[in-house]
Amino acid sequence: MDKGLEAEFLGVKTVNPLVLPAGIMDVSYGSMLYAVENGAAVVTMKSLTLAPREGNKTPVYTEIEGGAINSMGLCNPGIDAGLMEIEKFKEHSDVPVIASVFATSAEDFVSLSSSVNDSKADFIELNLSCPNVSSEFGIPLAASSEEVAKIVTAVKKVSKKPVLAKLSPNTYNVKEVALGAQNAGADAVVLINTLGPGMVIDVYAQRPVISAKFGGLSGPCVRPVAIKLVYEVSRALDIPVIGMGGVSRGEDAVEMLLAGATLVGVGTAVAHRGITVYRKICNEILQYMDTMKYSSIQDIKPIS
Ligand code: DHB
Question: Is 75 a catalytic residue?
């Protein structure tokens, strides 16, 4: 079904390049399986913390023209219960799983990665870039290449899984931060996390639409920022980049591959085109390949 779409990431073969990113339909094994049944080739679980978190009060999500803002507040069942979901997922599927983890100190990231070592996850993603908990924890670690290097170095000492660093678009030094991650031993980088944060005000109620007031921006409106950063970072790094941010259609996924991504995340588009978005995008990439007379997505080379 995905003939010609096969990709390879850190030595792992995937049936197509599409990834379910952290935070989308992924707090239970059933919802991750649902994405796979609809064409996702790699799944990421919602970022897990040492202790369970309830997250923010609703409303946590609202749509705008061209995108959406959310502030979930890192709701998750905690590392132990979260990894059980991955175990259950693996009873049903051998699709690669990325265990995403969030913490605010190197010690806690190390502790989370020790737990991930004992799980069936294929990769660990360090969420260094959640934009929605700054009132609780301060600005994201991904604002500083030194902080990122410190965390990645500490995790690499203990991790038995390849380490992915999820970076933020919300700084002026994304390339330096990505280089800091690579030099500290990261196996890949993931970008972009959501943009902003931003704010939407209900003009009749005269108050912010989401309860936390501010939230990360995603969807088609962020795509040019994502494309620019994936282009810039993938040219500067020797390690692969998982590119995401506003990919909704096959042509958007192709644009991400042309920018230099090895795999492509599709998140907010699930809300706009339904869970079958993965299958739709695969078909649209195949149509593009037909037009371009390509027989494999490997023919889609990064532009210079
Ligand atoms: C949340 C976390 C993120 O990393 C993100 O990009 C968006 C939302 C959250 O749980 O609030």
Answer: no
Residues of 91-118 as b/e, b for ≥16 C-beta within 10 angstroms? eeeebbbbbbbbbbebebbbebbebbee
Ligand 1 centroid–CA 42 distance in Å is: 19
Q: How far is the CA of 70 from the centre of ligand 1 (A)?
A: 7
303-to-34, 125, 159, 230, 239 alpha-carbon distances in Å: 34, 27, 34, 12, 17
Buried b (16+ CB within 10 A) or exposed e, 235-254: eebebbbbbbbbbbbbebbb
Residue nearest to atom 2 of ligand 1 (CA): 130
pTM of the model: 0.97
Are 264 and 243 contacting, i.e. CB atoms less than 8 angstroms apart?
Answer: yes
| pLDDT the model gives residue 1 | 57
CA–CA separation, 273 and 267 (whole Å): 10
Amino acid type, 270: V
Give the mean pLDDT per block of 10 residues along the chain (304 residues).
91 98 88 97 97 96 96 96 97 98 97 97 96 87 94 98 98 97 98 97 98 97 98 98 98 98 98 96 98 98 98
**Rounded to an integer, what distance in angstroms lies between the CA atom of residue 109 and that of residue 125?**
10
Query: 39 in helix, strand or coil?
Result: coil
Kindly list the protein residues whose Cβ atom lies closer than 6 A to any atom of ligand 1. 23, 70-74, 127, 130-132, 193-194, 216
Residue nearest to atom 3 of ligand 1 (CA): 130
- Cα 83 from Cα 188, distance rounded (Å): 21
